[in-house]
Amino acid sequence: MITTDVLVIGAGAAGLMCAAQAGYRGKSVVVVDMGKKPARKILISGGGRCNFTNENTSPENYLCQNPHFAKSALSRYSAQDFIDLVDRHGLQYHHKTLGQLFCDNSAQDLVDILMTECDWAGVTLELRSEVLSVTKIDDGYSVITNAKSYQCKSLVVASGGLTMPKLGATAIGYKIAEQFNLNVLETLAALVPFTLHDHDKQRFDGLSGISLLTEVTSETGTRFKENILFTHRGLSGPAILQISSFWRAGQAVTINLLPEHDLSETLGQWQREQGQKSVKNLLATLLPKRFVEVLVKDGVIADKPIKQLNHQDIAVLSDYLHAWQIKPNGTEGYRTAEVTLGGVDTDELSSKTFESKKQQGLFFIGEVIDVTGWLGGYNFQFCWASGYACGQAV
Q1: Are residues 162 and 67 in the same domain?
Q2: Which domain holds residue 281?
Q3: Does residue 345 share a domain with residue 302?
Q4: Please, which residues have CB within 8 angstroms of residue 112's CB and are 6 or more apart in sequence?
Q5: Where are the alpha helices (DSSP H) in the chain?
Q6: Is residue 373 located within the same domain as residue 324?
Q7: Model-level pTM?
Q8: pLDDT of residue 159
Q9: Could you tell me which of 24, 134, 334, 390 has the fewest CB atoms within 10 Å of its CB?
Q10: Are 235 and 225 a contacting pair, CB within 8 Å?
Q11: pLDDT beneath 50, residues of the chain
């Protein structure tokens, strides 16, 4: 039986941050993880370069049943705080659009920083360790893994969500919460591509790889202006991943295919200046040609000179392209999702320390709880912030 002050389940972003902070405070800390190596999700995120934070982070960038829950942690450990940390280690990184920061070389550089922090803080890491049971004991918790048995005063669950099962994602965090009578909200795959119904898949067969700037709106009115991407299964791209967190089965999404144009105005101008040219050829200057051809085949776009369109034709075509509606069949699920929506109910936790209100010494941080960020580094920033807050409290 190994005795430690703090046992962290999960060597991901939140778990490693928490472990280092607790270690620096003089606590003995052990991190257990099922994987062969730590931080596997960091390593594959952002195409292997990890979008590790977002300079624009605010509580408004998160979905949670209690929208105020994330405020405390995010204010106490900001994106700038994490940037200062990686700067001290000399990480080479670059800025992308919308406040996103990525590693220049490889996400491994970021993992190395986290492991160095844990090393300096005296943290012990035990890999290939599957948690088999958790039991409350007089002065803390007993945790048995396939390799060893532990006793700890504070138990931190940083086991992540259900996304990317090939990396070893399991429901262990939710099971521990339920074991101690904490409410767990329904979980769903989020930041995930849409699949389409067969009839739409057939319509758009051949468009795979086409990307265009759009504004996508959910039935709740949430909107994102970014690219969409046609795939052989359906729709992806940043705007689709963003809106997927706000979409539920059976709902439609509305896509403005020309958010930078007023199509009625443009069509009128074309009529005056290029009346002999065909509608389809002119629209192919604004939209991908293959996509225009699909809409011609569907009868949405008339294959005739633009001067032959009347006012009603212009209004109908403009409305269609500015508010194209599509009803997804579903999503690609946890296999390709970036995060898990839902999880441990934040009403069960202290927003300052992430400790269970019902169960002293039991903490939940990171993706396992019901806080889900937008695409663009927000989820990692919440992992750093919740890990930091918890590490100061255990």
Answers
A1: yes
A2: 193-332
A3: no
A4: none
A5: 13-24, 40-44, 71-76, 79-88, 107-120, 172-179, 198-203, 238-244, 263-273, 279-283, 289-297, 311-322, 378-391
A6: no
A7: 0.96
A8: 98
A9: 24
A10: no
A11: none
